[in-house]
Amino acid sequence: MAVPDYQSLMLPVLRLAATGIRRVPEVAEVIADEFALTPEDRAALLPSGTQKLLPNRVHWARTYLMKAGLLSSPARGQFTITPTGRDLLASNPATITRAMLAQYPSFVSFVGNKPAGTGEQATMSVTAAATVTESQTPEERIESAHTELMSELRSD
After folding, report:
1. How many CA atoms, within 13 angstroms, populate the side-chain half-sphere of residue 53?
2. Please, which residues bridge with residue 22 across strands?
3. Do residues 130 and 97 lie in contact, with contact meaning Cβ atoms separated by under 8 Å?
4. What is the average pLDDT across 28-43?
5. Structure confidence by residue, pLDDT tens digits, 58-97
6. Which of the two residues, 136 and 77, has the higher pLDDT score?
7. Which long-range contacts (CB under 8 A, 24 or more apart) does 8-11 make?
8. What average pLDDT score do residues 104-112 get?
């Protein structure tokens, strides 16, 4: 199995945060075991070769969950679930996506489409943006765009 995209990791990250204060490296290891990732998958690097893919995606899942108010950070490098996060888990969602996070005004404000509290239009903008690159983190989108640009420059 390939390394899951960051949206597929949001629900496992939230569930693990519900068990206490966590750190990304330990969560990445638990998730790697949960998804039965191979040693090659665990060692996979971003195209830049600067960071492992799984911890990077766990970081992005954590960031998005924090910006939605589902996680909090009691100390540097640590995170835990918030009451809002517990409420979401209690609803037993099958998955958590960027589109789902658009229901939280703090997340809408974070993605920068509209200030918090602008309602339906902001939610629609976040949903439309999410469908463009469902599985890529912002860092992966930048690297992909850079690679494409360099390829076009070489061919010109």
Report:
1. 19
2. 79
3. yes
4. 96
5. 999 999 999 999 999 999 999 999 999 999 999 999 999 9
6. 77
7. 8/95, 9/57, 9/58, 9/61, 10/61, 10/64, 10/65, 10/95, 10/96, 10/97, 11/93, 11/95, 11/96
8. 91
Cβ(139)–Cβ(56) under 8 Å? Answer: yes
- Provide the residue type at 92 as one letter: N
CA atoms within 13 A on the CB side of 2: 6
| SS3 labels along 92-140 | CCCCCCHHHHCCCHHHHHHHCCCCCCCCHHHHHHHHHHHHHCCCCCHHH
91, amino acid identity: S
Query: Under 8 Å CB-to-CB from 126, ≥6 apart: which residues?
Result: 98, 99, 101, 102, 107, 108, 111, 113
In this structure, which amino acid lies at residue 94?
Answer: A
Q: At what angle do helices 83-90 and 6-17 cross, to 10 degrees?
A: 110
83, containing H or E segment:
helix 83-90
Write the single-letter amino acid at 153. Answer: L
Please state, as a whole number, how many other Cβ atoms lie within 10 Å of the Cβ of residue 86. Answer: 13
Task: In whole angstroms, give the CA distance from residue 83 to residue 72.
Answer: 10
